[in-house]
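During the reporting period the student researcher (J.K.) took over the structure-prediction task from the postdoctoral fellow and processed the backlog of single-chain submissions. One of the processed entries is reproduced below for the supervisory committee.
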Amino acid sequence: MTTVAAYAAPAAKAPLERTTIERRAVGEFDVLIDIKFAGICHSDIHQAREGWGTAIFPMVPGHEIAGVISEVGPGVTKYQVGDRVGVGCFVDSCRTCENCEAGLEQYCTGTGQVPTYNGIGKDGEPTHGGYSQQIVVDENYTVRIPDGLSLDVAAPLLCAGITLYSPLKHWAAGPGKKVAIVGLGGLGHMGVKIAHALGAEVTVLSQSLRKKDDGLKLGAAHYYATSDPKTFEELAGTFDLIISTVSAPLDFSAYASLLKTDGTLVNVGAPEEPVSLNLFSLIMGRRSLAGSSIGGIRETQEMLDFCAEHGLGSEIELISASEINEAYERVLNSDVRYRFVIDTATI
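J.K. obtained the following structure tokens:
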């Protein structure tokens, strides 16, 4: 066991504070990662404040982890000391179910995926995330960060990047496809970048035009305010694919009306409240409403390689650990462009 510094929420809704946690000894197939940067995801806030239900405390959030390997177990074959690696939203799964064998560990139907934090590992101990100086992870649940990506801008790709890459690839975003991204935040801005790089015609649907210039610079061809009723009239029946990234309930019937026949509305945002839907908005156009989680390990590696090839890092604001609580409030106020990243050397 190794004692490392971390920032943790001692209880639900309590401010995060500096503390220490125990990391397990490096096992045969484990790697010890010196964490360099950790992104702040909106889901960190949901969980630290029990917005999604009962949680485990003290909680060390963080599942957008980028760092360097400082020790490897004797059975490790994929990595060596000094390699640049990342860890995303889960650190284990059953490994034997149909989904795990297909590289869809995020949908593990056996024991279920083991979350990077706010979960219970196979050793029966609570998992702790990236707001810390080190983490021990099985090599099979670690991904390589290509040299073309700086670690600070790569960290958010481990959640925000893969959360958008996975549905964009699954629903075949590319040349000839019209894709709308709902919300231009930590997730949405990566959706714009990735969809554009895939060759799709990208539209941003945002509550206001406040970030329009940013959206166009990131790769959007069009930008509309959803607070304007004319937007829904003008864009009716336009899109092959709409991906909603927002964490607040939307009028899904209105957004479904923007789809072409056979179009799909995919939700990757996770509101704490239930949403409503008039099913006629789907029935009358043979449209689909779908959800998508993160990606599996292979797809996450594919995403990182794609982002390196196209120069797609996250747009970040680098902060010290002492600013985490302030950053949480700013995320809730949509006051970040577009991802806070913690310099873990300040923990």
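The committee noted the following: The chain is about 25% helix and 25% strand.
J.K. will present the remaining backlog at the next meeting.
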